[in-house]
Amino acid sequence: MEVAMKELKEYFDTAMKFHGHKCPAMPLGLRAGLAAMKALGVERSQDKELFVEAETGKGHAAGCFLDGLMTATGCTYGKSNIQKLYYNKMAFTLIDAKTGRAVRISLKPEFFEKALNSPFVQERKKGVPPQDIPASITDPQVERILGLPESDFLMVSDVFHKDVKKGAANFEVKRCAKCGEAVFTDKLTTAPDGRLLCIPCSG
Ligand SMILES: [Zn+2]
Ligand SMILES: [Zn+2]
Question: Taking the CB of the first residue and of the last residue of the chain, which one, N or C, has fewer CB atoms within 10 A?
């Protein structure tokens, strides 16, 4: 069953505010994230219940895709439950941190190749910023993506097992002896004279 359109529109509105401009790649990430959550039967990550390993890099569309993916899954750079692998692939793995159940999703190559020839991307290639591309070009592409059947553009793997490495939470801060700022202790170094220094102050 596809994700209900009303829920998708709500996610889209949130993602629009976060992302900053309307483009086709953000809703692709949004839909891909929701598809992965559905495949695992999980809710959006409130804390670090979910983890994303994104295979994307800095290429065109990849950043926009990731903003949609973060909005859908709740895996964000702020919470550190997303990691970018820079394989420059439009793919990611969503992992349920508690159970280790995981699913890998990628854009179908023929779909992505076609998308890179879309009128929107033609404008981008000419150097037009996404927010300046006419709505008559952007809107139909975005609407189409929001309504596409998942099987038209997504490869969804079977559920497999993958563990998430968990670092111990550190709540302890001490002051750097040089700049006086509060620093989490795991990133303070001890100088030869025994003073605790933050990374920039330790040279
Ligand atoms: Zn974008
Ligand atoms: Zn310092």
Answer: N
How many A from CA of 70 to the centre of ligand 1?
A: 13
Nearest-CA neighbor of 153 among 10, 28, 49, 39?
A: 28
Which-ligand-closest: CA of 133? 1
- What's the CA-to-centroid distance between 178 and ligand 2, angstroms? 5
- 30-43 tens-digit pLDDT: 999 999 999 999 99
Ligand index nearest the alpha carbon of residue 189 = 2
Instruction: Please state, rounded to an integer, the average pLDDT across all residues of the chain.
Output: 94
- From the CA of 201, which ligand is nearest? 2
**How does pLDDT run across 77-128, given as a tens digit for each residue?**
999 999 999 999 999 999 999 999 999 999 999 999 999 999 999 999 999 9
Distance 95 CA to ligand 1 centre (A): 25
Residue 31 Cα to ligand 1 middle (Å): 14
